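[User]
If only I could read backbone structure tokens as easily as an amino acid sequence. I have put the entry right below:
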Amino acid sequence: MKIIDNGQSQFYDEMFDRNGVPREHYRPFADFIKATSPKRLNRLQFSTDKAQMAMGMTFNVYHDKQGQEKILHLDIIPRIIPSKEWMQLERGLKQRIYALNLFLQDVYNDRKILKDKIIPADLILSSKDYLKPCIGLTPPKNIWCHITGTDLVRNQNGDFYILEDNLRCPSGVSYMLESREIIKRAFPDLFKKLGVRPVSDYSARLLNMLEHLSDKPNPVIGVLTPGVYNSAYFEHSYLAQQMGVELVTGMDLLVKNNRVFMQTTKGLKQIDVLYRRIDDTFMDPQVFNPSSLLGVPGLFKAYKAGNIALANAPGTGVADDKAVYAYVPKIIKYYLNEDPILSNVPTYLCREEDDRKFVLEHIEELVVKETNAAGGYGMLIGPKASKTEHEKFRQLVRENPTNYIAQPTLSLSTVPTIIDNRSIEGRHVDLRPYVLYGKEIEVIPGALTRVALTKGSLVVNSSQGGGSKDTWVLYYD
């Protein structure tokens, strides 16, 4: 099968250098591709698709009128990261999560960072993700962000940048875990030859972290899901099954005397820790959204009374607001007195007059994002958009500048990808490592690599037609 554009383009290719020569850590895999017939590669890809369906690795796209479940297409060519690069990413992610956790504790309590005018107070206090019921709250073990999925991209020079922080209910880790099981069966010899670090202990690490949040020796733990119609239900059920804990919906739970109970055939059973996979404002209709049918009346009161731990803590969304993102380097410096190990993408805040003027004048060159949107929605990619779309977003920015940021259009790195069973071509990717915060901060030595399957596209989200790749982190360079 022919490999088109062996890294000889304007983008950084993960497998090939500028001369089309395989990078050292990719060489065994590149040799395998060269020695393997197109027929066998296509057979491996076909088997991978079938395995995903058999495992139930599907998701729903809410705006899809057909309402069909889809697989998150797994391309069999992995993204490979050498040990030295990963160690740098790991250090940077630990630093970032530690600082963001201190930030959350501060803004809901003493607000020192606001009083010292490091961040504009109105940016935080007026954010829809700053939850007033959480003011004065300190969560169990002083940890707010227990599970984080941080998105990174690599530019044309090979440098990694943080694209955004996901501290609410980051998804995708089940695809990372199941994809690894599938790809291991496709390339068993290469795993041994390259020395790929395992990710199979993620569920055990997650369970240990959740147990750490309770003072009980054997706490009862549940995964709180919105239900079978949620787009990530496969992940919720998968993680509950892997950890050996309860999978519950709001209908299964009730609160008595500020304690949360699960209804079972043998009566009520107290829940000590909930890994919640529902949004903050849907978790308790008595405190947040009164029309929510997904949550549990009284849950937040039980939480404030210290009778249940929640992961992630309510209110974490203010730390991954895209406008707050621009201040994270200052947040790190303020709380840790350190320079960021990993850089942000340069960001223009449309709430600032000079930044807004620049964005309006250069919108054709920029990516404009809603500060509270996700999944590739509420976004304009200037170089790919029409003049009509440019003008539409100019008007949106003028009407509500606080709701928008802008960034340069990044030249995301590429990884060779099998296209229509005919050729192997570079497609743009990002990287979502997962971080657990319990007794210590742990970065899982793997990640969800999302890939834009459409040629030239920079949008990797599954809801926008993206796929995924297994991510191999090596023990040695």
